[in-house]
Amino acid sequence: MSAREKEYGFLRANALSLAFGALFLITLAGQAVSGVADFNAQQVADGLEPVSLLDYVTSSSFGVDVMENWQSEYLQFFLYIFATVWLVQRGSSESKKPGEEGPESDREQKIGRHADEDSPTWARIGGLRTAVFARSLGLLMGTLFLLTWAASSVAGWAAYNSEQLGQREDPVSYVGYLGAADFWNRSFQNWQSEMLAVGSMAVFSVYLRQRGSPESKPVGAPHAVTGQTG
Amino acid sequence: MSGARLVFVLYLAVILVGIAYVVALGLMGR
Q1: pLDDT for A230 beyond 90
Q2: Cross-chain residue pair A63–B3, CB shorter than 8 Å
Q3: Which site among A11, A17, A163 would you substitute to test the B interface, given the most B Cβ atoms closer than 10 Å to its Cβ?
Q4: Are B26 and A144 in contact (CB < 8 Å)?
Q5: How many Å apart are CA A80 and CA A73, to the nearest integer?
Q6: How far apart are CA A84 and CA A217, in angstroms?
Q7: Fewer CB within 10 Å: N-end or C-end of chain B?
Q8: Are the CB atoms for A171 and A165 separated by under 8 Å?
Q9: Closest by alpha carbon to A194, among A87, A71, A28, A67?
Q10: Which residues of chain A lie closer than 8 angstroms to B2, CB-CB?
């Protein structure tokens, strides 16, 4: 850690994650307010009573709308983290250099006896702990995807059934909902946008630059150079 | 690094609480 880094206070040192955490809360509130208005418009059209904001944010209808978006984001990061181990995009800031595909050697990854003095303990220790730590980012994203997808299925099931009852139709079982078009439509409509966005980022960063962003190559870097950030 | 550790735990907590909350809403059939 450089001297310049040390004099950063908590807010500046964590500005990126704190800013996005705050934006998350603001946009979640925006979803709740616009969501209840949309929900109530549908209620009135169906000849049902409108609900309060509190009723709405404690409904599975709100829950599934939140969770179906969360699950697709974690799927996106999970796939991107694993796909970029094995697949390259020549010229992309998001990619490793062609020829570096795969998990790489212990020396390159600073694992076990190749670990530095300040490497995390679990990188140095070897065995199962190092094996887990070496995959921990992907494992967490994959686990969060499965949990959020499961949560979206449970809330989606309850929301679907309350809609069915409102229209005087039969409710379905949980397993029945897992085969329902509603569940898969919610899943696929979120997944398709994530796949397009990730692919766009990989290939747009070959020819375009954002000065100062680590998501971009340096402005003057040649288009053919892969895996450089600045 | 302790500041980043706090944000890390905060993020994980918000995510897990959010998941548990939505599962609970679904299971209660709300």
Answers
A1: no
A2: no
A3: A17
A4: no
A5: 11
A6: 17
A7: N
A8: yes
A9: A71
A10: none
How much is the pLDDT for A167? Answer: 85
Q: What is the CA radius of gyration of chain B?
A: 13
A40 CA to centre of own chain? 30
For residue A113, give both structure tokens.
């006896």
- Biggest CA-to-CA distance, chain B: 42
What is the distance between the alpha carbons of residues A72 and A190, in angstroms, rounded to a whole number? 6
- Confirm if A161 and B29 have CB atoms less than 8 A apart: yes
> If phi over 0 gives left and psi between -120 and 50 gives alpha, with beta otherwise, what is residue A4?
alpha
CA distance B14 to chain A (A): 10
Kindly report the nearest CA distance between residue A54 and chain B, in angstroms. Answer: 12
Q: What is the mean pLDDT of residues A59-68?
A: 98
Give CA–CA dist A199/A45, Å, rounded. Answer: 40
CB A172 within 8 A of CB A50: no
Query: Rounded to the nearest 5 degrees, what angle is found at the Cα of A191, between the Cα atoms of A187 and A196?
Result: 160
* Burial (0-12, 13-18, 19+ Cβ within 10 Å), A160: buried
Residues 6+ apart with CB under 8 A from A76: A194, A195, A197, A198
The pLDDT assigned to A2 comes to 62
Q: How far apart (Å, rounded) are the C-alpha atoms in residues A126 and A121?
A: 9
Q: Which of A63, A144, A148 sits opposite B25 (nearest CB)?
A: A63
The pLDDT of residue A166? 84
